[in-house]
Design goal:
195 residues, alpha/beta, 7 strands
Length: 195
């Protein structure tokens, strides 16, 4: 992670982010929002701060379960400070001087389609700016890159290795093979890197 100091110098780490809140972190989601793990961990490690992520309300189901069933993904959202997206929660968190993490593009950015990598899906109205101004919160815009690219590399490598192990041929020789297409139930030829 890199941050920018007040004088414009880019530094490694979070030194350019205020130590005290209220702070509103506003950024873009990458594929499936996996960047949340490293972002929350780094704020905990470097700033000793819990980032209170604003998430889609469907990620907070009302569940009835026994103590023996363990924890699931939804529990970890709450344990890591996540709250459902309502203006009430954003207002209360900023009023309490918290570090609030907001992705205006929400699930649409996290679940983007092929060809939409690095595209931002923000709404026309950005009410969070007015709310942050009410509490004199520092707004820290940020961008996330690399996650989609890394996933493409991993998937392409895994696919190539699986094909080579299965058929002993390089992927570009299999791209039009009927066995290759039917084996996977849909063509991969437009997803394979050709050398």
């Amino acid at each position: 992670m890199f941050s920018t100091m007040e004088d414009g110098t880019v530094v490694r780490g979070l030194a350019g982010v205020p130590d005290d809140g209220p702070v509103l972190l506003v950024g873009n989601h990458m594929l499936l929002g996996i960047e949340l793990i490293s972002l929350a961990a780094e704020f905990m490690r470097q700033k000793n701060a819990v980032v209170r992520g604003i998430a889609h309300p469907l990620l907070f189901p009302n569940k009835a379960r026994t103590w023996s069933e363990g924890h699931d993904f939804f529990d970890f959202l709450i344990l890591w400070g996540g709250v459902p997206m309502t203006y009430k929660y954003i207002y209360e968190l900023l009023a309490a001087g918290e570090f609030v993490l907001l992705y205006p593009g929400g699930y649409r950015e996290a679940l983007h389609c092929k060809g939409e990598e690095h595209r931002i899906f923000w709404p026309d109205r950005t009410e969070f700016v007015r709310m942050a101004a009410q509490f004199n919160a520092t707004i820290v815009p940020f961008g996330v890159v690399g996650e989609d690219d890394l996933l493409n590399i991993v998937l392409h490598t895994a696919l190539e290795n699986a094909i080579k192990a299965d058929h002993g041929l390089p992927p570009h020789k299999l791209a039009t093979s009927p066995h290759y297409v039917s084996h996977f139930n849909f063509p991969f030829e437009n997803r394979i890197v050709r050398y």
